[in-house]
Amino acid sequence: MKNKISALKSKIWLSPPHMSGYEQEFIDEAFKTNWIAPLGPNVIGFEKDIELYLNHNSHAVALSSGTAAIHLALILLNVGCGDEVICQTKTFAASVYPVIYQGAKPIFIDSEKKTWNICPELLEKAIKERVALNKKPKAIIAINLYGMPYNVEAINRISKTYAIPVIEDSAEAIGGSYNNIKCGTFGDYSVFSFNGNKIITTSGGGVLITRNKEDKEKAVFLATQAKEKGAEYSHSTIGYNYRLSNILAGIGRGQMKVLDERVNLRRRNFNFYYEHLGTYKNISFLKEPKGYSSNRWLTCVVFKSKKVREEIRLLLEKENIESRPSWKPMHLQPVFNTFPSYLNGTSDELYEKGLCLPSGSNLTLDDLSRIVKIIKSYFEQ
Ligand SMILES: *Cc1c(COP(=O)(O)O)cnc(C)c1O
């Protein structure tokens, strides 16, 4: 009996790592060959795996984090002091930090209801206004939030019309697609994260995707302390120590082998929640518009009010289940709230009423049933 209770109360995390078993072989190989450092076969192999997976005009640079990848994309676009960069307000802070690293200024844009990502109408309005102020933005950082692609057609049209490049922050979205084109291929630069909470992980890491080989070479140069050719270390550019280690890249190679399975399991989670909670009038889900496929990194449900959201979150917490409010928008963050923003209320509403439910690919059907039962009990009390 005692065992049964503790088993029932075992911790359920929001989005924990899920190893496949293949990772260890690549790590063992690195140890056997003493390829602990520097860059080695696992880094090159991991980059190849990603390029093959995207299979579309993509050159991958393995880095220490997704944040580093966004930073390098901004540097490659010559974003510098005083420049303006358009950012989706509904995201995680790491999408925006690198704008500040460069001494540039973020301009925040709210989301559309259809995808929860950057709203094309507001984006165009903001660009027109910034241009009229003689402050044409240097870049647009668009997010594939929770794995749902942004409105690629509309954003690419705007990017072209105003000649402003797009950095696609696909940190959460490897495995998603738009009209059968994979996330990670939409932007002038694209970014993946392999942080511990993402759909696949290197324990910590990221990848920058460039659209040509020259840009990849520049990114590798900047990420390895900007060392110029020659035996002596000569530097005429400021560099960064941003490369991924050969050990961690080994984890990434093992994880790439099961990416499709992981996506299917995350989608299974969403479908399970939708099947069991979708009939409640007070709970809404983000559906996939036609042509959009989300990897369903996290299943985020939207309740009727902040009060209900919080009560359910605490109820789950009491049962040792981790859930988390939907991202607090950047225009509300103390570090960013003085920057200009173009709002329509969508991100505020999602933040207040949205809750991310446990979404790991290692959840069992028992875990999912346990979570659903608690939420149902709230509405049926
Ligand atoms: C996780 C995440 C990042 C940052 O990636 P790290 O690898 O943790 O640096 C950036 N943007 C979004 C949207 C993320 O979710």
Automatic annotation (TrEMBL):
CDD domains given in the database record: AHBA_syn
Cleaved signal peptide residues: none
Lineage: superkingdom: Bacteria
InterPro entries linked: DegT/StrS_aminotransferase (IPR000653), PyrdxlP-dep_Trfase (IPR015424), PyrdxlP-dep_Trfase_major (IPR015421), PyrdxlP-dep_Trfase_small (IPR015422)
GO molecular function per UniProt: transaminase activity
UniProt keyword annotations, A-Z: Aminotransferase, Pyridoxal phosphate, Transferase
Matching PANTHER family: DTDP-4-AMINO-4,6-DIDEOXYGALACTOSE TRANSAMINASE (PTHR30244:SF34), TRANSAMINASE (PTHR30244)
Similarity section: Belongs to the DegT/DnrJ/EryC1 family.
Protein name: Aminotransferase class I/II-fold pyridoxal phosphate-dependent enzyme
Organism of origin: Gilvirhabdus luticola
